[in-house]
Structures are given as structure tokens and as C-alpha cells.
């Protein structure tokens, strides 16, 4: 296999199509009697992943590009409204495929995880915060990395050192609470990774919180907070903290996470999931083709 966008799209389409044939319940619900979609679910997800990898933030511009340059891969291209409606309905399929594709990589068995959250802005004005469909879910928050306040959500990520997303959540809740919820909703992942080490920042603290992780057979490493003694082994994991910042920058700089364009909970969720699947698929394909840097998107961004 070669390492380019066409090959990635073909391989990902085949993987999704095979999975849907083996597990048809993963597909979005549709009436038993009706018109069969001209664009299959596997083609829809592949289109969304390609859009994220190429940095498109406008669905209309992306679909025009597909009709012009990728007709050999997608004989039928829907209108923007139909594409958007189907993508929002494919929420569960996107979530399932992220886990399925991630499990196909050699990085899935890593025994060290990184945990962090990054802001996903959803509006820049007071009127937006008051009138948006996201009101009540999106919240005001502070981004210490950029020293600025924002209104929106946080993408919480648990990743391997190679950048492979293992667990994720999109919410405005506290980091510790969200991490516990992510772990509790994925018991199969925990069972497959006994004795895992998790590296986090100073926000992941508290006796009760750390006791809960220990009960789940997880070891937490974090920097010492003010007034605490330096934790054992801190000199070993401090350089690794920059890895999660690099992963967040991949989402923001190359996959345009902050320019998602979603205006409803379903729209924001679908667009963020497409970007998580895009990174997962790129790592999967780089792993399959023997590339030295698994998280590199260079070959797919042109």
C-alpha cells in the first residue's frame, strides 16, 4: 500500500463497509421500506474523513471539490443539506468506527495514556451564548494555554503516546468528573489494559479521585501542586506532557477543530467526531503502511 489520500480513502471505505456487513446494527436507522440511499454509509463516513484531513470547514465547498476532483471515488455526491442531515444521523456509527479502527493499530496496546482537555469554541458574542441551541450544554471557560476565556465545550481526550485516541468526550464538565465517566462507560477498554499508567496535568488531583483510579487498577502521574512534595518519578513524565499539547495542536492546526461550524448539539458532535476519526484513520493507515511517524498527516493534506 502507498501512503496517500486516495489509498487511505479506499482502505477506510473497505474497512467500514466490511464492518457494516458484519455488524449491520451499527448503521444509522432507516425505515425497512423506502428508497435505498445512493451514497452508502461507508462512502459518507469516508467523505467526512477526507474533508477533515484536507482542512475544509465549508461543506458546500467540500462537496464541490469532491464532484470536481474525486469523482473516480464517489460517483454520486449529495447536496449539502442531505449530506449534513445524514452526517448528523451517523453519530453512533462515527463513534463505533473510531474504536474499531483504533483497535486495528499496534498503538492500541500501549501501556501509557495521556489525558487532557482542549477548548472547542462555539460562539464569540453574548447574543450567541443566549440564543444558541447549544445554550445549557456549552459553558464559559478559561484556556490556560492561550490565556483567554471562551464560550463552548471541551474535548476531553485519553490518548496513547503516539497520539491514538482511546477515549473521548465533548462536554463542559470538570476534567476529573469527565475522566471518571469516560472510564466507567468503557469497561471493555479498561479490561484490555490492566495496570495502565495515566499522565495528566495538575487539574487531575484529589484523594477521592486518585483512590477511584487506584480501584480501577490505574496509576496516575501528575505534576505536584503548590504545597505538595514532588511526586516520585515526576522527572520521567514531565517531557511527555508536551506530547498531549502536540496532539491538541494537531486537532486545532491541521484538522481545524475550532472552526467546526456546528450550530446544534448534533452538528457539533458530528463534526468533532469526524476529526477524531480522521486522526485515528491516519494513524491506522500510517501503521498499516509502516510509516515511521504514525501521527503524520502530511501525506493526506494536499
Task: Please explain how this structure is put together.
Strands 1, 2, 3, 4, 5 and 6 form a six-stranded mixed beta sheet that branches. The chain is globular and about 65 Å long. The mean pLDDT is 87. 33% of the residues are buried. It is α/β, with parallel strands linked by helices. The longest helix is centred in the last third of the chain and has 24 residues, at 265-288. The protein has helices at 5-22, 41-53, 59-69, 80-89, 91-103, 126-131, 175-184, 187-192, 207-215, 234-237, 241-254, 265-288, and strands spanning 112-123, 139-143, 148-160, 165-171, 197-199, 219-221. The protein has a domain at 109-257: Ribonuclease H-like superfamily/Ribonuclease H (Nucleotidyltransferase, domain 5), CATH 3.30.420.
List the helices and strands and how they pair.
Elements: H1 5-22, H2 41-53, H3 59-69, H4 80-89, H5 91-103, E1 112-123, H6 126-131, E2 139-143, E3 148-160, E4 165-171, H7 175-184, H8 187-192, E5 197-199, H9 207-215, E6 219-221, H10 234-237, H11 241-254, H12 265-288
Parallel strand pairs: 1-5, 5-6
Antiparallel strand pairs: 1-3, 2-3, 3-4
Helix pairs in contact: 1-2, 2-12, 4-12, 5-12
Under the CATH scheme, the architecture of one domain is 2-Layer Sandwich
Outline, from the CA principal axes? globular
Q: Would you state the CATH class of one domain?
A: Alpha Beta
Helix vs. strand class = alpha/beta
Amino acid at each position: 500500500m502507498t501512503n496517500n489520500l486516495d489509498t487511505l480513502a479506499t482502505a477506510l471505505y473497505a474497512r467500514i463497509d466490511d464492518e457494516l456487513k458484519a455488524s449491520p446494527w451499527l448503521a444509522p436507522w432507516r425505515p425497512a421500506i423506502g428508497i435505498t440511499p445512493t451514497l452508502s454509509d461507508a462512502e459518507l463516513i469516508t467523505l467526512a474523513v477526507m474533508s477533515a484531513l484536507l482542512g475544509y470547514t465549508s461543506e458546500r465547498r467540500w462537496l464541490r471539490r469532491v464532484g470536481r476532483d474525486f469523482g473516480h471515488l464517489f460517483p454520486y455526491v449529495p447536496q449539502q443539506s442531505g449530506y449534513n442531515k445524514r452526517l448528523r444521523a451517523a453519530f453512533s456509527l462515527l463513534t463505533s468506527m473510531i474504536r474499531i479502527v483504533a483497535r486495528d493499530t499496534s498503538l492500541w496496546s500501549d501501556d501509557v495514556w495521556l489525558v487532557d482537555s482542549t477548548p472547542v469554541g462555539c460562539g464569540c458574542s453574548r447574543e450567541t451564548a443566549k440564543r444558541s441551541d447549544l445554550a445549557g450544554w456549552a459553558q464559559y471557560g478559561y484556556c490556560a494555554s492561550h490565556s483567554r476565556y471562551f464560550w463552548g465545550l471541551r474535548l476531553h481526550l485519553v490518548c496513547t503516546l503516539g497520539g491514538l485516541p482511546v477515549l473521548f468526550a465533548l462536554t463542559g464538565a470538570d476534567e476529573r468528573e469527565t475522566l471518571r465517566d469516560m472510564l466507567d462507560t468503557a469497561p471493555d477498554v479498561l479490561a484490555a489494559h490492566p495496570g495502565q499508567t495515566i499522565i495528566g496535568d495538575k487539574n487531575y488531583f484529589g484523594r477521592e479521585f486518585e483512590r477511584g483510579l487506584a480501584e480501577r487498577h490505574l496509576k496516575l502521574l501528575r505534576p505536584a501542586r503548590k504545597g505538595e512534595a514532588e511526586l516520585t518519578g515526576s522527572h520521567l513524565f514531565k517531557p511527555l506532557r508536551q506530547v498531549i499539547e502536540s496532539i491538541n495542536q494537531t486537532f486545532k492546526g491541521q484538522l481545524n477543530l475550532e472552526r467546526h461550524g456546528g450550530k446544534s448539539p448534533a452538528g457539533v458532535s458530528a463534526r468533532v467526531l469526524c476529526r477524531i476519526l480522521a486522526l485515528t484513520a491516519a494513524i491506522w493507515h500510517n501503521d498499516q503502511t509502516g510509516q515511521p511517524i504514525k501521527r503524520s498527516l502530511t501525506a493526506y493534506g494536499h
